[in-house]
Amino acid sequence: MISEKLLDNWNFHLNWQYWQGGDGEIVTLPHDFMLGTPRTPDSPTGSAYGYFQPCNGTYVRKIVKYSAEMQLLKFDGVMGLCEVFVNDDHVCFHPYGYTAFVCDIGKYLHDGENTLRIEVDASCQPASRWYTGAGPYREVELLTSGRDHFTPWGVSVKILDIDSDSAQVEFSADVVSSEHQTRK
């Protein structure tokens, strides 16, 4: 039987404790914390942002360590300056809200329960010509694997030549093996 805590690891959208200032609440990702700020006519965000206030937010969640060799946390989008921590150790920083990124959290996890913390700074506003929101606004996943695995976004296909009867295609993959990293 699989433990409830291990099952909870599989859905990284559930059970995030979100804080803005002193108030906390349980949220499900994706989440836009700027929507919870007051709207004021003097907001630096202006009308394109609906006069919402620039702000910061923190997300905290518990996870259990897997026995997998590779454990990456994959974010499809976090709007604002994003810092990721595991058990208070700084794991990674990502400065751009429109791109996906991964954080290798495996070496920071210990047996038993661990604490993930995401700190998002969305105070530099306006950050775009239109409303961007703030926080993890897309999928969050835990990627696990053994010692031998493809790197995230490491598989590619390139069409070299194509006509009505045939095509010449090149495949490549970045592979991490227990011996060494290689490109095949």
Provide the fold topology:
Layout: H1 4-10, E1 16-20, E2 23-27, E3 55-64, E4 70-75, E5 78-79, E6 81-86, E7 89-94, E8 101-104, E9 113-122, E10 135-136, E11 140-145, E12 149-162, E13 167-176, E14 181-183
Antiparallel strand pairs: 1-2, 1-3, 3-9, 4-8, 4-11, 5-10, 6-7, 6-9, 12-13, 13-14
Features:
1 helix; 14 strands; mainly beta; disordered N terminus; 6-stranded antiparallel sheet; single chain
Structural class: mainly beta
Rounded mean pLDDT score: 86
Task: Please give the radius of gyration in angstroms.
Answer: 20 Å
Q: Give the terminus-to-terminus CA distance.
A: 39 Å
State the helix count: 1
Give the SSE string. HEEEEEEEEEEEEEE
Strand content: over 45%
Shape: flat
* Biggest sheet features: 6 strands, antiparallel
Please bin the fraction of helical residues. Answer: under 10%
